[in-house]
Design brief:
The chain is α+β, with helices and mostly antiparallel strands. The protein is about 30% helix and about 25% strand. The protein has 16 helices and 37 strands. The strands form ten sheets. Strands 13, 14, 15, 20, 25, 26, 33, 36 and 37 form a nine-stranded mixed beta sheet that branches. A six-stranded mixed beta sheet has the order 3-2-1-4-11-12.
Length: about 700
């Protein structure tokens, strides 16, 4: 009897510098990884090359692929770069200035609004059109929809050549009838337009955020749609009909055919995948409170994971644009391997946020740029070898040293001192991001295990432990591919929301149950379309609550099934406890302070089989078996002759004492003097400080 044909699932994360690829054997759980340079001019090219490369490693054809999951930065990069096409905006008569009015809040870092310049509107005033018609907050019609106004608006944009349009009418979260009529008019009068309506993008109140989120969805829809469709076409040439999923910001995936209709959900999909992959790896290793630190070529993304679940937010933003869609709470800082070191007009050393990216890349790259980067500093100090990807990309130490000598001469520093300064600034940038997701949100950073990954994520791990007082750092095997691995650990997930602003005392259990049931049916129908049977589907309820008079809400879980008064009281108790944890106080014992429900939320989840983490086989010979040689590495204030270990040759229980360098195909871990790295049974490195004798 012949053995069953091998089947693999592939995860691909396209970053600013490299495209990371992971394939998991569905029978054995064995993981194969590779990387290939990203192709910014045509990201689909790097995607397909990555699939072909990992299949070539395994000696398999496209017929062996059971599914492909993808994390993309296409939407994020378009917003960060500000390369948006001209967009039209249609809103309710009298609300044409909603984008200009925006919010009264000033971003952190500006103590006085006098110094803050409001960012440009996503739609200029001359491309805003209004339509008569009005609903009240309950969805009841106050004034009928005016089809003549709607037709005039549609023809205006058609004649002006505006093919991307966002529609947001007042109180459309309560009833979408007017927006659906507007959509019908646009289909007739301007059939070539790409349109997003707010009731399909974000069905909750706050007109400004809903308007901007809808316009952002419309803005990225053409490019994301073309990108996903292009990959689907090329993937069909390699593996016809293979299921193709795209990572969403909320920690789930969605089929590519659906993503083109809700492209805004792909924002921050790469960082979300990394957080989930790290959560699974750290949880399996026995750690339930985790800080993830994903260091790439352009930036570093950090988030918090508690009990295996990354924290979620609906208060995120990408670039200048707020986005109210549910997303994993990620803080991004421009401190990656390609971050450029530069001198301010005052003569001080700065690092980032501008990056050399993949093209031209750091100065040490074969076709590198003319400005030194964090990677150049690591190369000059010997922290990374003079090559990347096992020798695929040679690095020029001399070119990097030349760039650092130029900066050093200006500052009166040696190249080693300049390089050390660059790394110190980069470490503090990362540490500040980690503080934002912990200390700034009422959490003690010292209670967490740091999990570093990404190509550059582990290079500063020892320094981050010193700066933040962290007890340990976990470095997974193949850390450069954790985001791609994370794509294979996540479920299909859709989020639905309904605004219901009501005081808790006035809220009827039957009304809440009915609203949740409606949302769950919408989620179930979407999962039906994804191929999940009803008995496989899981529904997760939450609600946003606040004290009456507050401007922002706290999200808490809600029990499933029919709700009674006791269940609603339990939700209020959860809210009091969560408020106390976040802000240090609550009004649970003050009957004068009423609780108000704001939004009901349902997440529909279609579970996907997670890959198994394979334990390391036992090895004989001790830690010396992994030593491949030594090289001079600059630690603290001097060069040290440092042993270099090849990580795949390390076995469970091995202990590597610093100073040491641990290398593998896609990344390097410098173990500083005074630190030790212990290998656990899954091949993770646990960095800790040596205990005093």
């Amino acid at each position: 009897m012949s053995a069953p044909a091998r089947r693999v699932r592939i995860g691909i994360d396209t970053g600013g510098t490299f495209t990371d690829v992971v394939a998991v054997d569905e029978q054995t759980g064995q993981v194969s990884t590779t990387k290939t340079p990203s192709t910014p001019s045509d990201p689909a090219e790097g995607f397909i090359v990555g699939v072909q490369k990992v299949l070539g490693q395994l000696g398999l054809s496209g017929d062996s692929v059971s599914a492909v999951s993808h994390g993309t930065t296409v939407a994020t990069n378009q917003l960060l770069e500000g390369t948006l096409d001209r967009i039209g905006f249609i809103t309710t008569e009298g609300y044409e200035s909603v984008l200009e009015i925006a919010r009264q809040s000033v971003p952190d870092g500006y103590g006085n609004s006098y110094f803050w310049v409001k960012p440009p509107r996503i739609v200029p005033a001359d491309l805003v059109r209004t339509v008569r018609g009005r609903l009240d907050p309950t969805g009841a019609e106050v004034r009928p929809f005016d089809r003549d106004d709607a037709a005039a608006a549609a023809r205006f944009f058609r004649d002006a050549g505006i093919t991307t349009i966002g529609v947001c009418f007042l109180h459309a979260y309560a009833d979408d009838g007017h927006e659906q009529q507007m959509l019908d008019v646009l289909h007739v009068e301007h059939p070539g337009a790409v349109v997003s309506i707010s009731s399909q993008v974000l069905r909750e109140y706050r007109e400004y955020e809903r308007s901007v989120t809808t316009l952002v969805d419309a803005a990225v829809k053409p490019r994301v749609g073309a990108y996903v469709t292009n990959i689907r076409r090329r993937l069909d040439e390699l593996a016809p009909g293979v299921p193709f999923y795209v990572m969403k910001s909320n920690g789930g995936v969605l089929s590519a055919s659906e993503v083109v209709h809700q492209p805004i959900t792909t924002m921050l999909s790469g960082p979300a995948a990394g957080a989930l992959g790290a959560a699974l790896i750290a949880g399996t290793a026995g750690f339930d409170r985790v800080l993830t630190c994903d260091g790439g070529g352009t930036s570093t993304d950090v988030t918090v994971v508690i009990d295996g679940e990354p924290t979620l937010t609906t208060e995120g933003r990408v670039g200048d644009y707020p986005s109210k869609i549910p997303m994993i709470d990620v803080v991004t800082v421009g401190a990656g391997g390609g971050s450029i070191a530069w001198l301010s007009p005052e003569g001080t050393l700065k690092v980032g946020p501008k990056s050399a990216g993949a093209e031209p890349g750091p100065m040490c790259y074969p076709a590198g740029g003319d400005q030194p980067t964090v990677t150049d500093a690591h190369v000059v100090l010997g922290r990374i070898p003079p090559h990347l990807l096992g020798g695929e990309i040679p690095l020029s130490v001399d070119a990097a040293r030349g760039g650092l000598e130029h900066i050093g001469t200006t500052l009166g520093l040696s190249p080693e001192q300049a390089a050390t300064g660059i790394l110190e600034i980069s470490a503090w940038n990362q540490a500040n991001a980690l503080r934002q997701v912990t200390v700034a949100r009422g959490r003690d950073v010292r209670d967490f295990t740091l999990t570093t990954f990404g190509g550059s994520g582990s290079l500063l791990a020892c320094r981050l432990m010193d700066v933040l007082g962290l007890p340990r750092t976990l470095v997974p095997p193949n850390p450069g591919n954790v985001s791609a691995f994370g794509l294979l650990t996540v479920d299909v997930r859709n989020d639905y929301v309904q605004t219901m602003v009501t005081r808790a005392a006035d809220l009827g259990p039957d009304a809440v149950t009915a609203a949740f049931t409606t949302l769950e049916e919408q989620a179930a129908q979407a999962l039906d379309g994804e191929g999940f049977a009803r008995d496989e589907q899981r529904m997760q309820r939450t609600a946003d609550l606040r004290y009456v008079g507050q401007a922002f809400e706290v999200r808490v879980p809600v029990a499933g099934g029919p709700l009674d008064r006791a269940a609603l009281d339990a939700v209020a108790a959860e809210f009091h406890a969560a408020h106390a944890q976040l802000y240090g106080y609550d009004f649970a014992d003050d009957p004068r302070q009423a609780v108000e429900w704001v939004n009901l939320r349902v997440s529909g989840i279609g579970p996907i089989r997670r890959p198994d983490l394979v334990e390391l086989a036992a090895r004989d010979g001790g830690v010396n078996r992994s030593v491949t040689g030594t090289r001079q590495v600059f630690f603290d204030d001097d060069w040290v002759d440092t042993p270099v270990h090849w990580r795949p040759d390390l076995g469970a229980g091995d202990v590597v004492a610093g100073p040491a360098i641990i290398e593998e195909f896609g990344s390097t871990v410098p173990v500083h003097p005074g630190f030790v790295a212990t290998v656990d049974r899954f091949g993770n490195l646990l960095l800790t400080k040596e205990t005093a004798q």
